[in-house]
Amino acid sequence: MNINAAVLRAQGSPLTVERVQLDDPGDGEVLVEVKAAGVCHSDLHVARGDWPTPTPLVLGHEGAGVVRAIGPGVTRVAAGDAVVLCWAPACGECPSCLAGAAVLCDRLETTTYRHQLPSGGTRLHCGGEPVAAFLGTACFAEYVVVAEAGAVRVPPQVPFEVLATLGCAVVTGVGAVLNAARVPAGARVAVIGAGGIGLNVIQGAVLAGCQQIIAIDRRATPLAAARTFGASDVVEAPVRVREAVFGLTGGRGADYVFDTVGTPATVADAVASARKGGTIVVTGLARTDGVAPIRMFPFVMQEKRLIGSVYGSGDPTKDIVRLVALYQEGRLKLRELVSRTYSLGEINEAFAALERADGARGVICW
Predict the structure, then answer these.
(1) Containing H/E element for 279?
(2) 265-272: average pLDDT
(3) Collapsed DSSP state (helix, strand, coil) of residue 169
(4) Rounded Cα gap, residues 366 and 354, in angstroms
(5) Are 144 and 313 in contact (CB under 8 A)?
(6) What's the Cα-to-Cα distance from 200 to each of 13, 87, 187, 352, rounded to whole Å?
(7) Interior angle at CA 194, CA 190 and CA 195, nearest 5
(8) What is the Cα–Cα distance from 149 to 89, expressed in whole angstroms?
(9) 124 with 131: CB under 8 angstroms?
(10) Are 33 and 54 in contact (CB under 8 A)?
């Protein structure tokens, strides 16, 4: 079928909306009509060349829609089902999967992270040329073909623009708190970066019952949003982050510090802001060549812990279902994450707003 998709022809150049060919779903694959797609910093990093990636490429990995057709052998979903897209469909058989670490599935390294479906290759073409699907998802398009495990069935009554951010930002942020760090009730938490991931780290901290949640960002608009999502204190950078956090925690430092930005400077600030015996969780990935300086002597002598967390450190296909239930119970904010909506033709404007940090999350809607 012919569809409209936002194609990245060269990193550092604007995306162009083009007619491309999408093949039918194969064995274990699902055709989804995309209804809403979140605009995430991971897409922006690829678009501007922070993460070297072959092109042409259709971006978008955070979306929701309706199943329109299924390939042979599909049993988890059926035509007409509302689904949230999961960009890390695990094989369920490798050592990582069997150990309960679905987000570390061995197959992801040879397929998803090479922008291929688990079956290999892409279902997208343009003028006889293959077009890669970012993270095997490519949801800046009218339709996508994804692996069966990449389409998570959800209740049909939840609006698609509400569901869109679940597939990455919400799972990543909430999971970093509940799965990776396992933050206990009463903890003091600092969050560096109040964008899409940071706001969901704050939500995770609220769910965990944290005593204090400190949000740190360079701009006032994200910090105002952080307040509405549950931050008890806000710090507008540039400041001496360590001193600000220690000042707000009675000179002790935060029990847990979450770095959702992932630059060398923010990682260093996160490590310095943690208390003795504290834990630092890094979810941000600014550049593939980033190297963070850490002062080793105090890190060792104060027995701090540094954890990397990808995609919520759990099983996204199960976590998405639980998060939808929390939203329906009124315990998780999703609609408030969407600060702007765009048409597919406005994708470059959406990226520009994301780069300016104009609010929580932009969503492409059909």
Answers:
(1) strand 274-282
(2) 96
(3) helix
(4) 19
(5) no
(6) 30, 18, 17, 22
(7) 145
(8) 5
(9) yes
(10) no
The answer to whether the CB of 173 falls within 8 A of the CB of 198 is: yes
The tokens describing 204, both together, are 């995770």
pLDDT band at 359 (very low <50, low <70, confident <90, very high): low
| DSSP H stretches of helix in 164-238 | 169-175, 196-208, 220-229
| Contact (Cβ atoms closer than 8 angstroms) between residue 292 and residue 268 | yes
Residues in a beta bridge with 342: 364
Q: What is the pLDDT of residues 119-157, one digit of tens each?
A: 888 999 998 899 999 999 999 999 999 999 999 999 999
Instruction: List the Cα angle 303/307/311 in 5-degree steps.
Output: 165
* Residues 6 or more apart in contact with residue 323 via CB below 8 angstroms: 166, 170, 171, 174, 332
Q: Give the H or E element holding residue 161.
A: helix 160-163
Residue 249 CA to residue 190 CA, distance in Å, equals 10
Q: Give residue 189's pLDDT band: very low, low, confident or very high (50, 70, 90).
A: very high
pTM, entire model = 0.94
Task: Provide the pairing of β-strand 2-8 with 305-308.
Answer: unpaired
Q: Is there a contact between 156 and 82 (Cβ–Cβ < 8 Å)?
A: yes
Domains of the chain: 2-167+334-365 (3.90.180.10), 170-311 (3.40.50.720)
Rounded to an integer, the average pLDDT of 286-296 is: 86
